[in-house]
Specification:
The complex is a heterotrimer of chains A (369), B (385) and C (648). Chain A is of the alpha/beta class and 369 residues long. Chain A has two domains: 236 residues, no CATH class; 104 residues, abc type-2 transporter like fold. Chain A has 15 helices and five strands. In chain A, strands 2-1-3-4 form a four-stranded mixed sheet. By secondary structure, chain B is an alpha/beta fold. Chain B has two domains: 230 residues, no CATH class; 102 residues, abc type-2 transporter like domain (abc type-2 transporter like fold), CATH 3.40.1710.10. Chain B contains 15 helices and five strands. Chain B has a four-stranded mixed sheet with strand order 2-1-3-4, with helices on both faces. In chain B, strand 1, helix 3 and strand 2 form a beta-alpha-beta unit. The longest helix of chain B has 30 residues. With 648 residues, chain C is of the alpha/beta class. Among the domains of chain C are: 241 residues, P-loop containing nucleotide triphosphate hydrolases (Rossmann fold), CATH 3.40.50; 108 residues. Helix content of chain C is 34%, strand content 25%. In chain C, strands 6-7-8-3-9-10 form a six-stranded mixed sheet, with helices on both faces. Chain C has a six-stranded mixed sheet with strand order 20-21-22-18-23-24, with helices on both faces. In chain C, a hairpin with a 2-residue loop joins strand 4 and strand 5. The chains are: A alpha/beta (369), B alpha/beta (385), C alpha/beta (648). Chains A and B meet through helix 2, helix 4, strand 4, helix 6 and strand 5 of A and helix 2, strand 4, helix 6, strand 5 and helix 7 of B. Strand 4 of chain A pairs parallel with strand 5 of chain B.
């Protein structure tokens, strides 16, 4: 029995890796995508273009604008002198933000009265707008504290002491990179498994397998192991890049991490094989992979939090192995979560995997044309 | 009187029209017979837009927040009420910072607000820090939103309590923000147009990625090639039916955005559809190019899987701001057609007909379409080699 | 036709309306397969006459399809030219495509369009004026016998009807020249006959010129002219009758009373001077290397009572003779071959490897020399051989038992109530038109498909529910030679041997045996997808035999394979049957039906008749047809069945 399974696994590997094009697809795109997406996926604003609309001649306004100028989030691209210039700049997306200090800004400030600073933001991308406002208000707060300290006078209010655990600088790349590890691992296991049975069916070799003494369970194992092992290798490779290239901290234990990866691969390969054994043709297999993957990624909590979703959609995400895997990845990477705290994420993945395998194995023999 | 040459030319044009008509009719018949392309064009936008339109939102609401009040009094009760009544937070009270920290470790809460024992005494000292905020920085974005919100709540509570005592709170610089186009910062208003772009990319590629390779695999291409069809006619004959189908799906998606998700449309409808048509041509011609280069459905499918969805999702500016990416990655986004379409859609929906945005992006789309079609035409020779 | 005549033919400028429809001049074409360059056509010259049917005949990878595609302007030649109706196929390809009708090997029918819609499409593409269509459609539909099916989806037509529809689509504009690439592959004999009738009517009534390729040699015989290609070179050309007559005096029918036909065939094939020996029902057909008188008694001393009668030669005989002589010529000249040659057995055949052997070897030059006619009644008496070597009780216990087997798909019965039994060591054939239910029966027997009703037993068990060990007793070879295309030959063998639980020295022994027995040693490391069809078939058989099964299922094991490879294949099957392996086979080739011990002919899911080849042929014997072929018998049975169906 082990001899048969071994032969099957060997054959699957040979069939996958002997083809230069497949080898290329398995190694090239994941690394390129990790690099491109790793840099692309971030909510940390950099060089947001803004326009300075300073009607004040005083030094206070100059100081405040100098603070903006020095911040990495913002880059001044225009100086304007009239209100009518604002609309064209914002409408045409030349600037995301216009900062306006009125003509009596310094005077008010010196007199100890609140000096208004207008910030006009392009809200077309509300998330970017919100982030820009936050960043701007941090700069203004800092300015206020400094002003209060140096000018004594007015009693400045007490401030809030803030600490961010696990990610002191609140770098959003740390949040997204583990997610990208998950996405690419899923993509790969789908590529390897979703077409594997459908292709053999189309070529007629699947019948050939079924008439040998191989049992469906053995075929299942033989089809699973290659996807599983390739997924393991790819996930390790991508994680190495994340840790050593992007410098994402890896606080938790490798054992916990690999338990999570193993269970996720189990569920991913299971779903892939299920799609594949359900499909009569490769085209259907591919369509199935698409239909599974797109929601699996968008509804995983990768970019948008699950708790904001309507209850019904939140219930749907319970079927999504990516959801659990992302929690494991982020937990182990950034928080150093211990094994026992992640058990609630482990068992649903195992359950999804086992169910999918059961269905796939049953379909092997019972799916006709 | 027609000269001989004229007649020849008009005859040629006539038979070309006849060939094209035959090809397009065939393609439509195949679409009608094969429900999967209709499903891709009409059911997929409905399904995806419903799922994502409701499912995807960046507005942080219902954030689980732990409150630790070390010495409760009327001041602290007043302050914590701000959180209790906020739609952004779901609060829970913990007796000690330790307990709250454990809850955060286990992922039950995302942030902890601690009102210290000396809350009342340090309240009005400028170097005092009566409130401590601990956020889980894993989700940096949520972390930042929490800190912004807590800071805001703190400021307004300070002003409020000062007012109650008859004082005026003196803040040196007061930031007044005005958000244009989307004053409530409703993330659905920009996510839904972006989703339309992602979904149309998927549909465009899925509809056409396999049509040419399918003809190669089934052997029908060889039969087409030996007819007097020219390659130009083959490409138009493939593009037009799927274009019409895709436009149907697009009308559906735009209709849902406007009426179901209530995204305001400030520009004009015709600009929206003209830009969408242009984008659809680009997406379809990319699919056609994949299909032509691959010649096997398997490879075409793999390329479509890798080259369409993730780039449109991550590199289009749909969620992640392109301006904040490194220069190299920004350069790469220029070959992602969805990028231009997202810019046009967000502008036409939320800002209006801003030609300064629409024209350059439309031009870029047209250029991409021309490149894809040109490459398709070059690769789809009327030869078998 | 001789070389001089050919020269004049090709030098006449071929104008439409002249005597020549197509001229091939010094045509060469090579392809890059992987890293190897393969010469598909090598300096080929010939011409096609107007108003006749010209057949392009040759074994697998002879370059037939390449030539057709070059003629249709789908490929550009490396050197040389093809002139089609006076136009150059490479430079004026659009004009050529506008003038000819072309039917590729797998005709591009849109299976999700109806018959009428397919016709409409090609009428549009070919620019048939609207006014002329109604008349033309009526003509074509009548000719193809598709009138009742105008609204049926092309995908739901039978294989034969699909081919007829493909032909109709290629004819929609009445082309003066029709190119047909293997129009009858995978088509049952009845549909083949109908296709040929259409082609001949075209030639007769409309003066169409037809160039077609075929792997069926009985079809080549029906052509007015044949062009023989082998490994990209022109081997010979002329009228089939002339080529055939060259073989007169070399063909015999041999029987030995009481001796098993397979044993006899084996003996004769090994006898000196015998070039070819074939089982034909109850006798063996022998082709000798020369027309010198043969003493069969001396040839087969062990066969007592041997009877041999001279019979008329067939085109197939000359084909086999030419190819075999060519192969021998190559062997002789192989000493001078360059060391760089890749295996000549690879896909498309590497003709560049074989050194210039001066065209056709002199020994087989087939000038139309009249030969002494041998009386078919001349019988040589040879003493009889001792009783059959196979045991008498071998047919006693059935190995495969099928009773009232049914398979329903929806409301359609693919297999309806069939019963038969196959004994150990028997070769049992299933014959039938496309869609008759042969493959469905096979899939049920192999446990790939559950029956809807009835019972079946294979080696005493129902394979669908039997333990995995029971499956180890059968071997299965499917229609498509299902192998792992990107694995090498050795890797395929290794995989299947392990899948069948072989290990250690035994596994090694079996793999060595397969490499030796099937002459695959030299290509053990080659990717199996690059092999020629004939070698793929060998490998598929080797894989199915790794575990020495008791029962072998062969589903159309020879479709698309050239006659020589088919013969070789059957000689192996015969040897296996001699060793007691039970063999079940489906086929479209009527001459292969002759190799079987017993046959069942199926139509519409039912068995029409069952018996030995002789008895089935005897059923078709009428006054008009005293000596019916298997094909006659088959066509007769199917037609009678259709009449009954129509009447019911």
């Amino acid at each position: 029995m082990f001899g048969r399974i071994f032969a099957l696994v060997l054959k699957e590997f040979l069939a996958l890796l002997k083809d230069k094009r497949t080898r290329l697809v398995l190694i090239g795109p994941p690394l390129i995508q990790l690099m491109v997406f790793g840099y692309a996926a971030t909510f940390d604003l950099k060089n947001v273009p803004y326009a300075v609309y300073n009607e004040d001649r005083g030094s206070a306004a100059r100081e405040l604008f100098a603070d903006f100028d020095g911040a990495t989030s913002f880059t001044p691209v225009a100086q304007i002198t009239h209100e009518s210039e604002i609309a064209p700049l914002v409408d045409g997306k030349q600037v995301l933000m216009v900062i306006h200090a009125g003509s009596n800004f310094s005077a008010e400030l010196a007199a100890g009265r609140p000096a208004p600073l207008q910030v006009i933001v392009d809200g077309r991308n509300s998330n970017t707008a919100m982030l820009a406002i936050n960043d701007a208000s941090v700069i203004v707060d800092r300015f206020n504290t400094a002003w209060a300290q140096s000018h004594g006078g007015a009693a400045a209010p007490a401030h809030i002491e803030m600490r961010a655990w696990f990610n002191p600088n609140l770098e959003s790349r740390w949040f997204f990179l583990p997610g990208i590890v998950g996405i690419l691992t899923l993509l790969l296991t789908m590529l390897v498994t979703a077409l594997s049975v459908a292709r053999e069916r189309e070529q007629g070799t699947f019948d050939q397998l079924l008439v040998t003494p191989l049992r469906p369970v053995e075929i299942l194992i033989g089809k699973t192991l290659p996807g599983f092992l390739i997924g393991m290798a790819e996930a390790s490779l991508i994680m190495l890049a994340a840790v050593f290239w992007f410098k994402v901290p890896l606080l938790g234990s490798l054992l916990t991490l690999y338990t999570g990866i193993a269970l996720f691969l189990l569920s991913g390969v299971g779903v892939g094989l299920m799609i594949s054994s359900f499909a009569a043709t490769q085209q259907q297999g591919l369509l199935g992979a698409f239909i599974f993957m797109v929601p699996a990624i968008i509804l995983s909590g990768f970019a948008t939090p699950i708790r904001n979703m309507p209850v019904l959609v939140q219930d749907i995400t319970l079927l999504n192995p990516m959801r659990y895997f992302l929690l494991v990845l982020r937990g182990v990477f950034l928080e150093g979560m211990p094994f026992h705290l992640l058990i609630p994420q482990f068992w649903p993945m195992a359950l999804i995997g086992v169910t999918a395998f059961g269905i796939a194995g049953w379909l092997f023999r019972h799916r006709m044309y | 009187m027609m000269t001989h040459g004229d007649r020849n030319r008009s005859e040629r044009a006539g038979s070309s029209r006849m060939r094209l008509r035959g090809l397009i009719r065939k393609e439509f018949l195949q679409i009608v017979r094969d429900p999967s392309s209709i499903a891709i064009a009409f059911l997929m936008p409905i399904f995806l837009l419903l799922l994502f339109g409701y499912g995807v939102s960046l507005d942080s609401e219902h954030i689980p927040l732990a409150l630790v009040v070390e010495q409760p009094n009327s001041d602290t009760a007043d302050f914590t009420a701000e959180f209790d009544h906020s739609k952004y937070f779901v609060t829970s009270y913990y007796a000690s910072t330790r307990d709250a920290e454990q809850a955060m470790m286990a992922g039950r809460v995302n942030a902890i607000v601690v009102l210290r024992r000396d809350f009342a005494s340090t309240l009005r000292r400028s170097d005092g820090a009566p409130v401590q905020l601990i956020v889980n920085g894993v989700d940096a974005n949520t972390g930042r939103i929490i800190s912004g919100y807590v800071r805001g709540a703190w400021g307004s509570w300070l002003a409020h309590s000062a007012q109650k005592r008859g004082e005026v709170l003196r803040v040196p610089v007061q930031m007044e923000q005005r958000v244009w186009f989307n004053s409530e910062l409703r993330s659905r208003n920009f996510l839904v147009p972006g989703l339309v772009a992602v979904i149309m990319t998927l549909i465009g590629a899925l509809l056409t990625a396999m049509v040419m390779s399918r003809e190669w695999e089934r052997g029908t291409m060889e039969a087409l090639l030996v007819t007097p069809l020219s390659m130009r006619e083959v490409i138009i004959g493939k593009l037009l039916p799927y274009f019409i189908l895709g436009m149907g799906g697009l009308v559906l998606a735009v209709g849902m955005s406007l009426f179901l998700f209530e995204v305001p449309l400030r520009g004009s409808l015709w600009v929206l559809f003209a830009a969408s048509a242009l984008f659809l041509v680009t997406a379809l011609s990319m699919g056609l190019l994949i299909s032509t280069v691959a010649r096997s459905q398997f490879v075409a499918g793999l390329i479509a899987l890798i080259a369409t969805f993730l780039p449109a999702f991550l590199l289009s500016g749909f969620i992640f701001d392109i301006g904040s990416m490194p220069a190299v990655v920004q350069a790469i986004t220029h070959i992602v057609a969805a990028r231009y379409y997202v810019a046009i859609l967000q502008t036409v929906f939320l800002a209006g007909n801003v030609w300064g945005v629409i024209l350059p992006n439309a031009l870029a789309l047209a250029a991409l379409a021309a490149v894809f079609l040109g490459l398709t035409w070059r690769n789809a020779r009327k030869r078998l080699e | 036709m001789n070389a001089a005549k050919h020269e004049t033919a090709s030098s006449t400028s071929a104008s439409p309306g002249g005597g020549i429809a197509l001229v091939v001049k010094q045509l060469s074409k090579s392809f890059l397969v992987g890293k190897r360059r393969i010469q598909a056509l090598h300096d080929v010259n010939f011409s096609v006459r107007h108003g006749v049917v010209t057949g392009l005949v040759g074994p697998d990878a002879a370059g037939k399809t390449t030539l057709m595609r070059l003629a249709a302007g789908l490929l550009v030649p490396d050197s040389g030219a093809i002139s089609v109706l006076g136009m150059d196929a490479a430079t004026q390809s659009l004009a050529v495509q506008g003038a000819i009708g072309y039917m590729p090997q797998r005709f591009g029918l849109y299976e999700d369009l109806t018959v009428q819609e397919n016709l409409d499409l090609y009428a549009d593409l070919q620019g048939v004026p609207e006014a002329a269509r109604a008349e033309r459609y009526r003509e074509l539909m009548h000719m193809a016998g598709l009138e009742p099916f105008a609204r049926r989806l092309a995908g739901q037509l039978s294989g034969g009807m699909k081919q007829k529809l493909g032909l109709a689509c290629a004819l929609v504009r009445q082309p003066p020249l029709l190119l047909l690439d293997e129009p009858t592959v995978g088509v049952d004999p009845l549909s083949r006959r109908e296709l040929w009738d259409i082609v001949y009517r075209l030639v007769r009534e409309q003066g169409t010129s037809v160039l077609l390729t075929t792997a069926y040699l009985d079809e080549a015989e029906r052509c007015d002219d044949v062009v023989l290609l082998h490994e990209g070179r022109l081997l010979d050309r002329g009228e089939p009758a002339v080529l055939r007559e060259a073989m007169r005096g070399r063909t015999y029918r041999v029987t030995v009373a009481g001796m098993d036909k397979r044993v006899l065939q084996n003996r004769i094939a090994q006898a000196p001077g015998a070039m070819d020996a074939l089982i034909q029902g109850d006798h063996v057909r022998v082709v000798m290397e020369s027309d010198a008188p043969v003493d069969f008694a001396a040839l087969c001393p062990a066969a007592a009572g041997i009877e041999a009668a001279a019979v008329a030669p067939r085109f197939e005989d000359s084909f086999v003779a030419l190819i075999k002589a060519k192969a021998r010529g190559d062997e002789d000249s192989s000493a001078q071959m360059t060391a760089t040659t890749t295996s000549p057995l690879l896909a498309r055949g590497t003709a560049e490897g074989s050194a210039q052997s001066g065209g056709v070897p002199a020994g087989v030059r087939l000038a139309g020399v009249a030969r002494e006619r041998v009386d078919t009644n001349q019988v040589q008496h040879i003493p009889p051989l001792p009783a059959g070597e196979r045991g008498q009780d071998q047919f006693a216990r059935p190995v495969i038992e099928v009773s009232k087997l049914q398979r329903r798909f929806g409301s359609f019965y693919a297999v309806n109530d069939i019963s038969f039994a196959v004994s150990r060591g028997e070769v049992f054939g299933l014959l039938g038109a496309n869609g008759a239910g042969k493959s469905t029966t096979f899939r049920m027997l192999c446990g790939l498909l559950p029956p809807s009703g009835g019972t079946l037993r294979v080696a005493g068990a129902d394979l669908r529910h039997a333990a995995a060990a029971a499956r180890a007793r059968i071997g299965y070879m499917s229609q498509k030679f299902s192998l792992y295309g990107n694995l090498s030959v050795a890797e395929n063998l290794q995989f299947f041997s392990s899948a069948y639980d072989l290990s250690g020295t035994r596994r090694k022994q079996r793999i060595d045996w397969a490499l030796q027995e099937f002459e695959l040693s030299s290509m053990a490391d080659l990717t199996s997808g690059d092999l020629s069809l004939g070698y793929k078939q060998r490998l598929a058989l080797a894989c199915a035999l790794m575990h020495e099964p008791d029962i072998l299922f062969l589903d159309e094991p020879t479709s698309g394979v050239d006659p020589l490879a088919r013969r070789e294949f059957w000689s192996r099957i015969n040897a296996l049957a001699g060793q007691g392996v039970t063999i079940m086979v489906t086929t479209h080739f009527m001459e292969e039906a002759e190799y079987c011990d017993r046959l069942a002919i199926m139509a519409a899911g039912e068995i029409l008749t069952m018996g030995t080849p002789g008895s089935i042929k005897a059923q078709a014997r009428t006054a008009a047809q005293p000596e019916p072929t298997m094909e006659d018998a088959f066509v007769g049975l199917i037609m009678a069945h259709e009449h009954r169906e129509a009447a019911a």
